[in-house]
Amino acid sequence: MRILFMFIGLFITGGLLQCQAPDSKLLKTKSLVLVLDNLPVDSCSVRVHHIITGEEVYHNSTYKIGDTLYIPSIDDDMYIAVFSWPKTLISHRIFHSKQFNKEEDADYFELTKPIFLQDRTDSLYKISVVNDVTLEEIESSGAEVIAFKNLNCKACDLADEYWALYSSFFSRKKDHIDSVRQVYYNNVKATNLEKARESYLLVNDLERNYQKDDILDAALIKKIKSNEDSQVSMFFLFYQLYNHRDFDKFRGVFNGMSGDARKSKYYNMVYKQYHPAGV
Q1: pLDDT of amino acid 176
Q2: Confidence band for 120, pLDDT divided at 50, 70 and 90
Q3: Residue 123: pLDDT above 50?
Q4: Does 230 have pLDDT greater than 90?
Q5: What residues contact residue 202 under an 8 Å CB cut-off, 6+ apart?
Q6: What b/e string do you get for 87-118 counting C-beta neighbours within 10 Å, with b at 16 or more?
Q7: pLDDT digits (tens, 9 = 90+) for 70-102
Q8: What pLDDT digit, counting tens, does each position of 2-29 carry?
Q9: pLDDT tens-place string over residues 162-192
Q10: DSSP symbol at 181
């Protein structure tokens, strides 16, 4: 899923979790336990960042694949984990995190994986690479060649389902913009200035309102209705409103949120923002 590795605006490419042996002070608190398995490298640097603010909540520069990471107590929320290692294939593309890469002088390859972490007793999150993929394939083709599987994390599975909707949206929207842009080029070539202007304005409108998409909104609403008691659903409702403020379209599903979703800070944020409008 392309969206698992490519993000827009301020919610992207987070950091690198660093693995170190858990110390006694850390283990005295409630800790999240995270394991990454089957990635075709021996070790990597790892950071975990809050997906909206970019705040780093955990860092380990020498994580050995398959070992256990102990993350201190954090809020239930969506985070982004970035796994990074020195680039081994000089001829291939270099992937840099513009927002979080702290080693700008070195060539590092980065994989990003969003994950919804919940601070609960005995929280265990295991992310496995389940397809047979080589390091060369990853560094030459990009992170989308990897098939991740979340173990012991139903919230993570649900989050990945939402990200898949965005991945499909990004691919479709890009194809549409490319198509309209080609119409513009053809009109310019044919010296049809009026048609060229129309297609140029349409391209600009699509790019300015990139996140606006009726098909995506309908898919999100359907998914939220099926999981209206989930904090994950509440995050994505907030996220879509953050990207494109069209609350009227989401008013019905927001009013239908229940259970853990109503305990989410994102529920309170949306309520405070739109309550004057008559939520």
Answers
A1: 67
A2: low
A3: yes
A4: yes
A5: 180
A6: beeeeeeebbbebbbeeeeeebbbbbbbbbbb
A7: 887 778 899 988 899 888 765 444 444 444 455
A8: 333 334 333 333 322 333 333 333 333 4
A9: 998 988 787 777 766 777 777 777 878 778 7
A10: H
- Residue pair 278/248 in contact (Cβ under 8 Å)? The answer is no
Alpha helix positions (H), the chain: 24-27, 135-141, 154-189, 193-208, 214-226, 231-243, 247-255, 260-263, 265-274
Cα gap 128→115, rounded to integer Å: 13
In angstroms, the CA 235 to CA 238 distance is 5
211, 224 Cβ separation under 8 angstroms: no
Neighbour-count burial of 274, counting CB atoms closer than 10 A to its CB (0-12 exposed, 13-18 middle, 19+ buried):
middle
The burial class, CB within 10 Å (0-12 / 13-18 / 19+), for 132 is exposed
Count of CB atoms situated within 10 Å of the CB of 141: 13
Taking the CB of residue 239, how many other CB atoms lie within 10 A of it? 19
Distance CA 237, CA 265 (A): 12
The DSSP result for 200-233, as a single string, is HHHHHHHHHTTT--HHHHHHHHHHHHHTTT-HHH
Four-CA torsion 231, 234, 238, 241, nearest 10 degrees: 160
Q: How far is CA 74 from the centre of its chain?
A: 18
